[in-house]
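Anyone up for a design puzzle?
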């Protein structure tokens, strides 16, 4: 029986995908027979050659592009592991990531709590403004106020949890209608079922920088989440909790406006967020403990990851990269 299923959604990132998959296959202290890697090709224009990775890597190919929620759901349905871990196709794991998380997760759960517990790793990632690589240890989440405050812990590449958490009687699958903020939605539902998020302080995940979505990409997700969790929604939150959640959605909209270079919209969304939850700083709560700097081998890996991103965007094969 497979113990850990690793799910990697991908869309048009063949070079980055190769590095991500190899980082999974290089995991230490995990028996090969205990691990399956499921690559979900979300209708790439040129499907990646997943079969080249060998029999431990399974390809799931979607006929139409559905976005991260649809792709992860397809991987979950195909998986057979007791545990599930996610990895974005442009990120990388260090070799001890899975073994550490498995041991930590098994130590902290009981049969009664396994569907309501999740574990995330700490990360190396570049600072958005300076570009300097730093270690970040996310704060844990143990109540609904935490889960309404955002999804700062980058679950697309850090999350480890029991497959039971995705059962209909537990939190269920990701909402496939969401192409953005699907993690935020899932973890709020997880919190509503008394879920708790734990943190492994060891830095074992390398996260590539990503650009903020523009306002057009957020209109449908924010509207859908308001229809789901707002005062007249299908799953209405208590008033104070809804104000906190709405304040976070306004922060997302402010970031989108900043990406669009729309200063007026940025100011409007920031003002609404602060009106909903008065505070003196942009974030609703502290999210990370930051440690400047990283080892040389991690910096070198990030340099290679950047080359992969350039190759993927240009369509050049690896053998022609400079």
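Challenge accepted. My sequence:
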């Amino acid at each position: 029986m497979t113990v850990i299923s690793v799910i990697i959604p991908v869309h048009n990132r063949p070079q980055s995908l190769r590095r991500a998959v190899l980082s999974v296959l290089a995991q230490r202290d995990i028996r090969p027979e205990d691990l399956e890697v499921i690559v979900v090709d979300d209708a790439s224009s040129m499907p990646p050659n997943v079969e080249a990775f060998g029999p431990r890597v399974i390809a799931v190919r979607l006929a139409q592009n559905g976005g991260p929620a649809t792709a992860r759901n397809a991987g979950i349905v195909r998986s057979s592991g007791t545990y599930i871990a996610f990895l974005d196709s442009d990120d990388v794991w260090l070799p001890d990531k899975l073994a550490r998380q498995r041991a930590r997760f098994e130590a902290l759960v009981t049969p009664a709590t396994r569907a309501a517990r999740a574990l995330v790793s700490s990360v190396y990632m570049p600072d958005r403004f300076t570009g300097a690589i730093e270690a970040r240890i996310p704060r844990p989440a143990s109540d609904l106020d935490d889960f309404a405050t955002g999804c700062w812990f980058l679950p697309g590449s850090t999350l480890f949890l029991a497959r039971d958490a995705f059962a209909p009687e537990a939190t269920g699958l990701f909402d496939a209608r969401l192409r953005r903020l699907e993690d935020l939605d899932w973890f709020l539902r997880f919190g509503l079922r008394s879920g708790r998020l734990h943190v492994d302080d060891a830095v074992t995940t390398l996260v590539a920088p990503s650009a903020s979505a523009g306002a057009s990409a957020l209109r449908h997700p924010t509207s859908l989440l308001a229809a789901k969790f707002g005062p007249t929604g299908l799953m209405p939150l208590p008033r104070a909790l809804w104000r906190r959640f709405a304040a976070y959605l306004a922060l997302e909209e402010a970031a989108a406006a900043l990406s669009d270079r729309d200063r007026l919209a940025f100011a409007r969304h920031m003002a609404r967020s602060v009106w909903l939850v008065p505070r003196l700083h942009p974030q609703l709560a502290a999210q990370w403990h930051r440690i400047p700097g990283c080892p040389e081998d991690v910096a070198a890996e990030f340099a290679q990851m950047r080359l992969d991103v350039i190759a993927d965007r240009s369509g050049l094969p690896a053998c022609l990269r400079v």
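A detail worth pointing out: The chain is about 40% helix and 20% strand.
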